[in-house]
Amino acid sequence: MAAGGRATPPRLLEESAARKPAARSLAPPPPTGPRSDGRCPVRARLSTGGRRLYSSHAMNEQMQDRRAKLDKIRGLGVDPFGGRFPDTTPHEDIRAAAAELEIEEGQILEDGEVFHAAGRVVLCRAFGNLIFLTVRDQTGDLQYGLSKKMVAEGWKVAKLLDLGDIVGVTGRLGRTKTGELTLWVSAFRLLAKALRPPPEKRLGLTDVEARYRRRYVDLFSNPESRRVFLQRAQIIAYIRQKLRERRFVEVETPILQPIYGGAAARPFLTHHNTLDMRLYLRISPELYLKRCLVGGLERVFELSRCFRNEGISPRHNPEFTMLELYQACGDYHDMMDICETLIAGAAREVIGATVVRFGETDIDYTTPWPRRKYADLFREHVGLDIGDIAAIRERARTLHAAGDLKADESRLDDPVVVNELFEHYVEDKLVHPTFVLDYPAALCPLTKRHPDDPHVALRFELFINGMEIGNAYSELNDPDIQRENFSRQLRGEENETMAVMDEDFVQALEYGMPPAGGLGIGIDRLVMLLTGSTSIRDVILFPLQRPRQGNASADEGTAPAAAAEPERETP
RNA sequence: GAGGGUGUAGCUCAGUCGGUAGAGCAACGGCCUUUUAAGCCGUGGGUCCAGGGUUCGAGUCCCUGCACCCUCACCA
């Protein structure tokens, strides 16, 4: 048995603490002889020092071990939290450079190029005088090799490295006897000591709640999670690039709005103190982007964070990102073309495929996508003519009675009942990308009417895997019809309508807005589809979570204490 | 809001009929200069989500609460 082991003294500490729980963190270290492992002095300092005291679950054994190493490293005159470490080469690029070279097994390129690299230690295989680290940077993993001979005085620090530490190294390429590409380290620097242990080295962090609350741990321990967010960035970059090629201008419009509009949803409410003014977080940027059209910005887009005070589900987050764009002198057919270009193009360029698996389904993004009329799909899947209101109400009543349809048709206007049945029967049938055209006009107060039929609006929605991904109009630019649509209240379940009167917006139309096509695409849902993520929380870095209660320690990313209770009223 | 599920070591998970709290990884001590989830020997580590109840005895059974996940509703 190892004489320097810690079996006995900590046991005594625990036992005395168990008898006197209140004194647990103040208990003096048990009397022992001289120690060489450096652990007890640390515990003594932590438990008796004048600084903040740590309870047992705020400071577990492994964290104490790591703090002991921290002190040892400082004792060697080394800053455990580094500083600037310039000129690093991403692991991906180092691998690419190595692919150009002939490196034999067991060889080190003594006269080869010197690389700087940095990342987090995710695996460690230590021998007596040799350490292999698997280090992860944003682009991937690479093995670093440290030998006592090569790093000289740095060896003392190297022996104190833990999983999770962030290191920067200088070295030359080689291959080990087993052929693994290895950066043989001649000098290294500790850039950040990890004081908390990382998750299990193979499985990473799998607990979904922990993954959302501590996304930073999810990101460095789960390459799959990092892949999703890097691809999200690439998809958005691709969209920006394509729109720029088509001469669209990126603009920013108000998130704080005195009148909310452009969609049907409950808004978040806030207040401006100096102006003593009620403001809403936008549910849509639509009415402001159209004002840009009036102003002569002929092709505009915004990647727009929107906020809707509604339920949370695998497809809904209270804040989400919408692409919205408007093209003067266009119509909704132009918007279909843009949809196909952006989405099929992103699949091809970012994912590298035209067929992308989502859950159990292979979704085919090959263009062109089917264009189906709303009324035709209704007849096909519901089995009724869209004009046969009596039969439609009868069907809705039957479904409602059977508990298959929540909505009560007797409380709804005709077009809303029609749409309830459309959603019930049709939407989840639309698996591969499908444009649904020509909606009932009553559902579309911001849309131009069909020239041959005023009951039909020049609108489409894009459905993929039963989800609404896009929504586009030939935009209504007749101010008188717009004013009339704002004035008409459509009776729905919650008595909500997107047609909240916005007098300034109508006035803008009176100055003259060019005919235009407008399009909205749900970016989060698009990223879900293309990355194969079945929950919207898996494509939003920090999804909204209820704060952990009774947890005053900074452990779980709790919300800061509310300064003042905000208004709760809902318009 | 309704229904279902989950909550045990830093992480991933077992825990039988109610009878002393378990494993792997991680950690600590030891050996080791070519590993790939390194290996071998040894050791420590628990608010069993929280609170109540039943019981001689509760991780386990009952009640209440909390958090998260799923389905439904809401989201035209």
What do you see in this structure?
It contains 17 helices and 19 strands. The protein has 571 residues and is α+β, with helices and mostly antiparallel strands. The strands form four sheets. Strands 6, 10, 11, 14, 15, 16, 17, 18 and 19 form a nine-stranded mixed β-sheet that branches. The N terminus and C terminus are likely disordered. The structure holds one RNA strand of 76 nucleotides.
Quick rundown:
The chain is α+β, with helices and mostly antiparallel strands and 571 residues long. It is built from 17 helices and 19 strands.
Secondary-structure content class: alpha+beta
What's the total number of strands? Answer: 19
**What is the alpha-carbon Rg in Å?**
31 Å
- Note the beta-strand portion: 15-25%
Characterize the main sheet.
9 strands, mixed
Overall outline: elongated
Helix content: 25-40%
Helix segment tally: 17
Measure the end-to-end span.
72 Å
Unreliably modeled segments: 1-57, 550-571
Q: Round the mean pLDDT to the nearest integer and report it.
A: 85
Please describe the topology of this protein.
Layout: H1 8-19, H2 39-48, H3 61-75, H4 91-99, E1 114-126, E2 130-137, E3 140-147, H5 148-151, H6 155-158, E4 166-175, E5 181-192, H7 208-213, H8 215-221, H9 223-245, E6 249-250, E7 256-257, E8 269-272, E9 277-281, H10 286-294, E10 299-307, E11 319-328, H11 332-351, E12 355-358, E13 361-364, E14 371-373, H12 374-382, H13 389-401, H14 414-425, E15 434-440, E16 449-450, E17 453-464, E18 467-474, H15 479-487, H16 503-511, E19 516-522, H17 523-531
Parallel strand pairs: 3-5, 6-10, 14-15
Antiparallel strand pairs: 1-2, 1-4, 2-3, 4-5, 7-9, 8-9, 10-11, 11-19, 12-13, 15-17, 16-17, 17-18, 18-19
Helix pairs in contact: 2-3, 8-9, 9-11, 9-17, 10-16, 13-14, 15-16
The chain binds one RNA strand of 76 nucleotides through helix 1, helix 3, strand 1, strand 2 and strand 3.
